[in-house]
Amino acid sequence: MKCRKCTRSAVINMRQHKLALCSEHYIEWFTFQTQRFIQEYQMFDLNNRLLVAVSGGKDSLALWDVLHHLGYQVDGLYINLGINHKTSYSLLSMQKAQTFAHAQNLDLSIVDVVKEEGAAIPEAANLTLRGRTKPCSICGITKRYFMNRIGLDHGYDVLLTGHNLDDEVAVLFGNTLNWQSGYLLRQSPVLEGSAEGFIRKVKPFFRFYERETAAYTFLRGIDYIQDECPHAIGAKTIYYKEVLNQLETKRPGLKLNFYLSFLKAKAEGLFSPEAHIKIGDLHPCENCGQPTTAPQFCTYCRMWEQVRSTKSSLV
After folding, report:
1. Against a cut of 0.90, is the pTM above it?
2. Is residue 123 part of a domain?
3. Measured between alpha carbons, how far is 154 from 308 in angstroms, rounded to an integer?
4. What is the CATH number of the domain that holds 113?
5. 187, 193, 273, 277: least buried by Cβ within 10 Å?
6. 5 lies in a domain?
7. Quick one: how far is CA 113 from the chain centroid?
């Protein structure tokens, strides 16, 4: 198959776009589309200080790479979750992020959860959840807390994550199956900041299929951790991705149409003011100052206080 723009062999065929491109023109297309999404959804501009949350995986490193080459002021943030008990997952992923930052001469900040809170995510989950479920919930709360806190404390204008279309559609699919109205209301490629203490959050890759970000990373020669988090095995989102991939095989473009149609429906009033979920008044947590709707302490502080209390009682 030939590249649409030249006579060279195509390295990728995107059936949903009816477009096949060679290596050079694919990187050019991918970079152009990223900039187009940023402008179309008014995510940020060249005057903004950007902080991208990097995991050492393909999506976040690809995002950092594209933004850097587009000329944006963008630094990285890696959160070491301490997932190293049975594998060296956190250590290896951190090394991938550090290697990339060093090669590109970029600034990378590292937050160590064990140093900050006294326990790694798996241990914290065992102390609080008692093995009833995966540590994904405590992991998600912790990552969101540090991303928001570091972003605000260090004066960044926008926080960016590398979520791709497959990630977003899997979440949308799950929330729709269960009619999680609150989550559906908040799902968006752009979440505005607030005076109560939330930094602006954006997802520039939300319209790229996972294989498209993987192709960019490969063609750019970016080294990334290819293993999934060991605790993600059996997660519902992975199952949803598998189901959606089967549908996509028979109907190319289904995932993209599903997500864009959802965004259009929201813009046209799918969630009317009367249907909005009342989430309560935001106010600062009495311990850390982050925004919360709880009476005194936010979920993060209550959760980690339980971890520390349980851990000290076992000594």
Report:
1. no
2. yes
3. 27
4. 3.40.50.620
5. 273
6. no
7. 18
